[in-house]
Amino acid sequence: MGGVFLIKCLSTNCTFNNSGVCSASVIHIEGFDADITPETYCKTFVEADNSAKMTNSVCEAETSSKNIICSASNCTYNFNGACKSSDVQINSLNNTCETFIKRYFNSNYEY
């Protein structure tokens, strides 16, 4: 696997969204039996209100692809519970993982 990649977050109402980049130290993607994108979601999502926005106050660093715990076992990028995608994006409407691609065979091939 190449370098470290930042996590794009379109959920502008998430506490950890810092100008379109996730600032949580670690994110968890859920969707153990997911077969399609709407069956996944960012478990780390926290609804922000104007007084509780944590953009730079709590997390100084942005989340990278090295900090993704993924339980979407049917995703082609899931390798032993870690995400191996170089382009992770969280949807703005329902916090789904837009990077999810269904794995059509049982493989733990590392990308």
Key attributes of the depicted protein:
111 residues; mainly beta; three-stranded mixed β-sheet; two-stranded parallel sheet; DUF1540 domain-containing protein; DUF1540
Could you write a compact summary of the structure shown?
The chain starts with 7 loop residues before the first strand and ends in a 21-residue tail after the last strand.
Number of helices: 0
Shape: globular
Radius of gyration in whole Å, from Cα? 14 Å
- What's the total number of strands? 9
Estimated structural class: mainly beta
Strand order of the largest sheet: 5-4-6
**Percentage of residues assigned to helices:** under 10%
Series of secondary-structure elements, N-terminal to C-terminal: EEEEEEEEE
Spans of at least 5 consecutive residues with low confidence:
55-60
Taking the alpha carbons of the first and last residues, their distance comes to 6 Å
Residue-averaged pLDDT: 81
Protein name: DUF1540 domain-containing protein
Pfam families: DUF1540 (PF07561)
Domain DUF1540: 7-45, 68-100
Organism: Paraclostridium bifermentans
Description:
By secondary structure, the chain is mainly beta. It has one domain (1-111). It is 0% helix and 19% strand. The chain contains no helices and 9 strands. The protein has strands at 8-9, 17-18, 21-22, 27-30, 41-42, 68-70, 78-79, 82-83, 89-90. The strands form 4 sheets. The protein has a 3-stranded mixed β-sheet, with no helix packed on it. Strands 1-9 form a two-stranded parallel ribbon. Strands 2-3 form a two-stranded antiparallel sheet. Strand 7 (78-79) and strand 8 form a beta hairpin. The protein is globular and about 45 Å long. Mean pLDDT is 81; it is low at 55-60. It comes from Paraclostridium bifermentans. Pfam families: DUF1540.
